[in-house]
Write a structure and sequence with these properties.
Helix 4 links the parallel strand 5 and strand 6. This protein is α/β, with parallel strands linked by helices and 359 residues long. The protein contains 13 helices and 15 strands. It starts with a strand and ends with a helix. The model has no long low-confidence stretch (mean pLDDT 96). Helix 5 packs parallel to helix 6. It is globular. It has an eight-stranded mixed sheet, sandwiched between helices. The chain has two domains: 167 residues, NAD(P)-binding Rossmann-like Domain (Rossmann fold); 173 residues, NAD(P)-binding Rossmann-like Domain (Rossmann fold), CATH 3.40.50.720.
């Protein structure tokens, strides 16, 4: 099969769909991989690396897109809509529940679009997990940076010092993102609270963290009480395939101390904090109600060398199945089949259909 790997064009997105190691695996299997020149530069992979792995370099995005299977990292951007072709397989992150326009474009193009974030194995999301781990860890790293006074924050050191209390980190959601954020915040010496609605998960987190984290059962009253005390508020809520619920209305944000920071990792699924909207790596923050808001939807793009390899470790077996069997792979592997979002002009994924019942 011919496989295209275009260069990502989302703002400062330096990850790449296939690493040279993955290209070699596909080439050894008899597939031909067409990589747009400089597609891997930002992740530390040169054109020469790809050529040595067996790839054919192409000089334009159109040449990379004009293949039976296109493997990317982020969802197609408007400049790429006209490059999509009917019957083409597209394997990438999509997050359609937060993007009606893209959903309609995929349907109009009649591509078969498979989303990393909805491939499911035993009620887990294996292709979302590696990026969730990275995003969770980065949420604290970025949050600590923007708490610095020179960055617009209130000048709080999350770890504190002897005689001065540490900063307070409140994490909404105890899944992969929330757990990784808590690990980082604990490592820095912060006071950490995790809010979750799943009692079984709270019990698991108690086994993991013990008394190092305060675990809170989620309710509107609890969130209203906790949020104003946060120096760093992290949104880590995920409802697979659906828009994230709004847990923090503007009124709660307005009660936070000036210079506090909000990082919403759920922003690519619509966000769980009312005042937060998507930003970019070029312009990552804005201030609303005196609070610094960080809403970059492709946070792992900040660490592309790590993120590309972590992503490929998970996606490569599925890429190989699609290359070997085409659309038949979706039936051969039911877990991969759950990733199907759009095909032949129809919206397929049930969770996204609930968001857009008229499509």
């Amino acid at each position: 099969m011919e496989i295209g790997v275009p260069k990502e064009i989302k703002d400062q997105e330096f990850r790449v769909g296939l690493s040279p190691s993955s290209v070699r695996g596909l080439s050894d299997r008899g597939h031909t991989v067409f990589v747009e020149t400089q597609a891997g530069d930002g992740a530390g992979f040169t054109d020469d690396d790809y050529q040595q792995a067996g790839a054919k370099l192409v000089s334009t995005a159109q040449e990379a897109w004009s293949r039976q299977l296109v493997v990317k990292v982020k969802e197609p951007r408007p400049a790429e809509y006209d490059l999509m072709q009917a019957g083409q397989l597209l394997f990438t992150y999509l997050h359609l529940a937060a993007d009606r326009g893209l959903t309609e474009q995929l349907m109009a193009a009649k591509v078969t679009a498979i989303a990393y974030e909805t491939v499911e194995v035993n009620h887990t999301l294996p292709l979302l997990t590696p990026m969730s781990i990275i995003a969770g860890r980065l949420s604290v790293q970025f949050g600590a940076r923007f708490l610095e006074k020179q960055q617009g924050g209130r000048g709080v050191l999350l770890g504190g010092v002897p005689g001065v209390r540490p900063g307070r980190v409140v994490i909404l959601g105890g899944g992969v993102v929330g757990t990784e954020a808590a690990k980082m915040a604990i490592g820095l010496g912060a006071q950490v609270q995790i809010v979750d609605i799943n009692l079984a998960r709270l019990n698991e987190l108690e086994e993991l963290f013990g008394s190092r984290v305060e675990l809170v059962f989620s309710s509107a009253a609890q969130i209203e009480a906790i949020v104003p005390e946060a120096d760093l508020l992290i949104g880590a809520v995920l409802v697979p395939g659906r828009k994230a619920p709004t847990l923090v209305p503007r009124a709660y944000v307005e009660k936070m101390r000036p210079g506090s920071v909000i990082v919403d990792v759920a922003v690519d699924q619509g966000g769980c904090i009312e005042t937060l909207h998507p930003t970019s790596h070029s312009s990552p923050i804005y201030v609303d109600a005196g609070v610094v808001h960080y809403g970059v939807p492709n946070m792992p793009g900040a660490v592309p060398w790590t993120a590309t390899q972590a992503l490929n470790n998970s996606t490569f077996p599925y890429v190989m199945q699609l290359a070997d069997h085409g659309t038949a792979a979706l039936e051969r592997d039911g877990n991969l089949g759950k990733g199907l979002n759009v095909t032949e002009g129809a919206l397929i994924h049930p969770a996204v259909k609930q968001v857009f019942p008229d499509l």
